[in-house]
Design a protein that fits this description.
The complex is a heterotrimer of chains A (107), B (130) and C (409).
Chain A lengths: L9 E4 L2 E17 L4 E11 L18 H11 L3 E4 L3 E4 L3 E3 L6 E2 L3
Parallel strand pairs in A: 1-6
Antiparallel strand pairs in A: 1-2, 2-3, 3-4, 4-7, 5-6
Chain B lengths: L12 E3 H5 L3 E3 L5 E11 L14 E7 L3 H6 L9 E4 L3 E4 L3 E3 L10 H9 L13
Parallel strand pairs in B: 2-7
Antiparallel strand pairs in B: 2-3, 3-4, 4-5, 6-7
Chain C lengths: L1 H17 L2 H14 L4 H25 L3 H44 L3 H18 L2 H12 L4 H9 L3 H10 L8 H15 L2 H13 L7 H33 L6 H47 L13 H19 L4 H26 L3 H4 L6 H27 L5
Classes of the chains: A mainly beta (107), B alpha+beta (130), C mainly alpha (409).
């Protein structure tokens, strides 16, 4: 499956629409390969309105220049990480299992 | 949202949109061969219930497969999906470095074609500038 | 000793390489119509290009990533491709203007029609790109471009009323013949001429070509912070010459001969010979820079192999792109379009395209993954944020002003 098909899909939880897939988080911690270990999906970043374009301000280490950081923080307010084990199915929408946990989206 | 719990993963954490898509890909000798346009994973079957115990893994990076589908949606023809297997990736930093020479990937065919049919035929094309 | 030599050489080439056809024409036009009242824009523009070049040079030296790789990575395919389209269009327009400028200057020197010089000039540009090493190319073009210092000498020899020039520069009032709208239109043109995006593509890619590392940062900073302001001073001398000679006589600049006319008046035949050499060198050097920049932009955006440090066969699509751009420039010029007119439009379009190039560089210059400990300091960020606002305002105002003033007519 191609990941661009997942990016920007709507995300639906038990209580209704949660937002859109803004990003997919991977970690290089799977079974070892010849050069790097496998990159495994950790979860999906779900954002409210704006689906992409934070120019890297998702990361806590970048806080300057202040006006830009402020602007992009505002834009991504309300985004969160849903772990893989909390995702039920993916087709035209991403369905999240009941009782899922919202994790912080920051790195 | 500072009140949400922070999830810690072992290993290098990569957000696809942020760290992988549109990054420059360099071959073993630091020669640029393309940009990442898409990523192929296995372990997701559309519509089926997903297995919480086996998260999808990246199988291939898809390089230079047309900017138009990414701008306007849709998908390039399968023949244009230039794949680079994840097993060839050596490092993910400000560029994605591979452990193999660029000639072993079909994404460089147009470079080779232009070289063989145009540039190498012009006098001096194979010599270093002085 | 060798180190000082490198710094001195870098500064000299930065001065000689700063002025191109855009600066030559726009400063002369502005001087002849508004006197020195727009001098402040040159100062603002020079500070801007210093900031911009410094940030992109730092990113290139430490991460090895040139400007258009960063634009693609940060802006993504949509905004990135829009930026690529605009940047390549403007860069090829500027390339056209520079090749035309070489032909016009050679016409002044020889009396032979520019139409004959155009293909020759373009072929010479290609030959240098194809065969000459990056550092040799940059140094020779930059040093010969220093001949333009004759504008400064002429200004002294003309013996203008310095007090009057100073009053013009401080009062910032437009000339009675002009409206405030044309005044602001030319302010944007002058800003665009000083802050052309291609200079940044060239500067950062040049850093990668010359394999800059952290240690080269000091040298690169000195080149920028000393060389560019002196280049800006040279621009002001061009405007000063025009303000002294052309403004009182009511001569409008619409040809290269009028730009160099004050030099002939101030410094005579010898001065004229030197200034023509300077114009040929400056426009030829800038033609090399714009030609390469078009190649850099396209290759970096698409992830192709690029660079003059490789053999042409090892950067085939990069070299093919530059050949195509040069052919396009020649074809455009052979239609008989006036290179001066192309220049006047290209500087305004530069101002319009600037924000999409400036923003990603500003963001990445703050990202430790790219520049490690060398992220922007507080002062740098304060100033560059003010410039972001300034660049946005100029870009937004440019098109309405262009329509309202009928492109400064």
């Amino acid at each position: 499956m191609l990941l661009n098909d997942i990016l920007s899909l709507p995300v639906v939880g038990p209580e209704g629409r949660l937002g859109y897939v803004a990003d997919c988080r991977f970690a290089i911690d799977g079974s070892p390969g010849p050069l790097l270990a496998d990159a495994q999906l950790v979860g999906l970043i779900v954002a409210g309105k704006h689906r992409h374009g934070f120019l890297g301000y998702e990361r806590t280490s970048v806080r300057s220049p202040a006006p830009l950081a402020w602007w992009f923080e505002r834009r991504q307010r309300g985004s969160f990480l849903v772990l893989w084990e909390d995702i039920e199915s993916i087709d035209d929408v991403v369905r999240v299992r009941p009782g899922y946990t919202r994790w912080s989206a920051t790195l | 949202m500072p009140d949400l719990p922070q999830h810690e993963s072992p290993g290098q954490v990569l957000d696809v949109e942020l760290h992988i898509l549109d990054r420059q890909v360099l071959d073993r000798d630091d020669v640029p061969i393309g940009h990442v346009d898409n990523i192929e994973v296995d372990g997701i079957e559309p519509g089926r219930e997903l297995d919480p115990a086996s998260p999808p893994v990246v199988t291939n990076l898809v390089l230079n497969s047309g900017i138009l589908p990414r701008m306007f949606g849709g998908r390039p023809p399968a023949s244009r999906l230039h794949r680079v297997p994840w097993s060839a990736v050596r490092n993910v930093g400000t560029a994605i470095e591979l452990g193999e020479p660029g000639a072993s990937f079909d994404v460089t065919w147009s470079e080779r074609w232009v070289r063989d049919h145009v540039i190498a035929r012009i006098p001096g094309g194979r010599h270093a500038p002085e | 000793m060798k180190k000082y030599f490198a710094v001195a050489l870098g500064i000299l080439t930065a001065i000689g390489g700063f002025v191109d056809i855009g600066d030559l024409v726009t400063n002369a036009v502005v001087g002849s119509r508004f006197g020195m009242s727009l001098a402040w824009v040159v100062v603002v523009g020079v500070v801007g290009i210093c900031l911009f070049a410094q940030m992109s040079g730092r990113v290139a030296a430490i991460s090895g990533r040139a400007t258009f790789e960063i634009i693609r990575e940060r802006l993504g395919p949509r905004a990135g491709a829009a930026n690529l389209g605009a940047s390549v269009l403007i860069t090829v327009m500027t390339l056209t203007a520079e090749v035309g400028g070489v032909a016009l200057a050679l016409q002044l020197a020889s009396g032979v029609q520019p139409l004959l010089w155009i293909p020759l000039a373009a072929f010479a540009v290609w030959l240098v790109i194809w065969r000459v090493k990056f550092s040799v190319m940059e140094n020779v073009a930059g040093l010969l471009g220093l001949a333009l210092v004759v504008f400064g000498v002429s200004l002294f020899l003309l013996g203008p009323d310095w007090g009057d020039l100073k009053t013009q520069a401080l009062q910032q009032t437009s000339h009675p013949r002009e409206t405030p709208l044309t005044y602001w239109y030319y302010a944007i043109a002058l800003f665009g001429a000083a802050m052309t995006p291609y200079e940044v593509f060239f500067f950062s890619s040049g850093g990668v070509e010359e394999k800059w590392t952290e240690e080269d940062l000091v040298t690169s900073r000195a080149n920028v912070l000393v060389g560019f302001p002196l280049g800006g001073l040279l621009s002001l001398c061009i405007a000063g010459c025009a303000a002294t000679v052309l403004l009182p006589r009511g001569i409008d600049v619409d040809a290269l001969s009028q730009t160099v006319f004050p030099v002939a008046m101030g410094a005579g035949q010898l001065g004229l010979a030197v200034v023509i050499l300077g114009v040929v060198a400056a426009t030829f050097g800038a033609a090399l820079e714009t030609g390469l920049s078009a190649g850099y932009a396209l290759a970096q955006f698409n992830g192709w192999s690029w660079g003059k440090f490789r053999r042409p066969a090892e950067a085939a699509r990069f070299h093919l792109t530059m050949i195509i751009c040069l052919v396009v420039a020649v074809l455009v010029l052979l239609t008989g379009v006036d290179p001066i007119l192309v220049t006047e439009y290209s500087v305004v379009f530069s101002a319009i395209a600037l924000p999409l190039t400036y923003l990603p560089i500003l963001v990445v210059a703050n990202d430790p993954q790219y520049v490690g400990e060398h992220v922007n300091g507080r002062l740098m960020n304060a100033v560059s944020t003010v410039y972001l606002a300034l660049i946005l305002v100029a870009a937004i105002a440019a098109i309405p002003l262009m329509i309202l003033t009928k492109a400064g007519a």
